[in-house]
Amino acid sequence: MASLVQPAGPVGFDSITRQIERRLLRRGFQFNVMVVGQSGLGKTTLINTLFASHLVDTSGRKDPQSEFARTPEIKVVSHVIEENGVRLKMNIIDTPGYGDQVNNEKCWDPIVKYIKDQHSQYLRKELTAQRDRYLSDTRVHCVLFFIQPTGHGLRPIDITVLKKLTETANVVPVIAKSDSMTIPEREAFKKVLQKEFAYHNLHLYPNDAYEDYDEEDRQLNKEIKSIIPFAVVGSEKTVVVNGKEVRGRKNRWGLINVEDETHCEFSHLRNFLISTRLQDLIETTSHIHYESFRSKQLLALKENSSSAAQQGNAQAAAAAAANRAASK
Rounded to two decimals, what is the model's pTM? Predict the structure, then answer.
């Protein structure tokens, strides 16, 4: 084991963090987020609210006269967002509302297949003899899972989809349109959901099984787990509160300020996803979910190669035996 040495004078390698920062700022960062949930829960609206930009057009109706539309297939929208010199390249993956049909058997398959396909594409790029210096990353770093604000817990189909998704990606659950519930109803609903998450052993993000977390990370995770699922409200419209414009909604009962923690937990979700855990979401996707997929694929490839080699050897031996028998 190498011993720790303190230089007697200035050397200069303590500037390496600034060197890395300059290089990363020049290249920019990639973040891919997927939204999953039943139609009409405000998935695209929440994404636009999170990044304070109109990034995705909703497929829902905007007035009573327009036709009702659903997202028919998985749709990917790409943007580059810049804030204080930091460029964030984003892929927003909008998925068809699952559970909308009469027969919902295997309705989650296209979503899970998309996540695995991105792992597969990345693996093929890695194994290419002459690969790019920087591989384009389309792997799904975060899945926002939208839960209906019913107050009655998860549906059987929700549990099935969550089990499938948590095996392949970082899943963060949110209670959609939480302003449709009173505060006591919301808190009671959250407790029911937390019990169901634990009962069904759903490995939601953040997961302390990841070994890279230090004590500070684990404490933060503990605080976050007490809040999950986040009860959120999304809105791209601005309303005036005490002479200040904020994003929110106005209805006959009053005004919803999405930034106000007493109204909803949108600010907790935004700080969690973007301000404190964005890089961790990227790293756990690479080091946990993708690595698990990669190892399974390479092991399967090795087993197939061994089987093919054994079969080839057996065929060669049989052919040699046949040749010897024919020459006698």
Answer: 0.83
